[in-house]
Amino acid sequence: MAGPLEQFEIHPYIPIEIGGVDLSFSNSAAWMALATVTATAFLTLGARRRALVPGRMQLMAEMAYEFVANMIRDNVGDAGRRYFPYIFTLFMFILFGNLLGLIPGSFTYTSHIIVTAALAVTVIVAVTGIGFAKHGMHFFSFFVPKGVPAPMLLMMVPIEIISYLSRPVSLSIRLFANMMAGHTMIKVFAGFVVPLGAATLGLGGLAPIAMNVALTGFELLVAFLQAYVFTVLTCLYLNDALNLH
Known about the structure:
- The chain contains seven helices and four strands; from the N terminus they run ββββααααααα.
- The protein is globular, with a radius of gyration of 22 Å.
- With 245 residues, the chain is mainly alpha-helical.
- The model has no long low-confidence stretch (mean pLDDT 88).
- The chain has one domain (9-243).
- α1 packs across α3, α2 (56-75) packs across α3 (84-100) and α2 (56-75) crosses α7 (206-243).
- It has helices at 27-48, 56-75, 84-100, 113-135, 150-165, 167-199, 206-243; strands spanning 12-14, 17-18, 21-22, 25-26.
- 69% of the residues lie in helices and 4% in strands.
- A two-stranded antiparallel sheet has the order 1-4.
């Protein structure tokens, strides 16, 4: 029986090596591509009819659009509207990666720190670039809290810089840890079904099955919640870059 951590292993589908660098098309890349195609198909089909009275698909697509649009408006304001395409794409990529990862036999790429770290670093680099583009060198005033006495700045400025640089760390670990922990728990309880069932004429397997059903429902909630948390923090970081303190 496969261990609970084997579901996170990377397996190359198409081995590719260029200049000693492994660029193989793996299960992780395949599920990223599938998530992208699925999200694109969902939005395309939802926006195809554009009926005054929306059907189910159109309603869900419009709800996703409005959800992210409202998130940007509430946390960034009108200045954040121009960044809607990036933030919406980020939300859908994470959400569909989380949801597809709940399918038995699938691969959850958001449970890998390298994926979440790449997304987090991209966010921080983007908002920092936006901050410099709008404020120039005045962007460094973000690290100087207002109203702090000058002697305290010697301590506060390094703390602010460290706090800023730690953002991609906390952003990536939060998503990765939640997704990995949830899938590991589901696999652990699934491993109890057959042994307990065999030892108790099938009755003992009912408890871990019930627990897995509950965990799957909880993971469905976590899939949405973690996509939301990652996106809303991106909006808050963008707001900091645009408006400083």
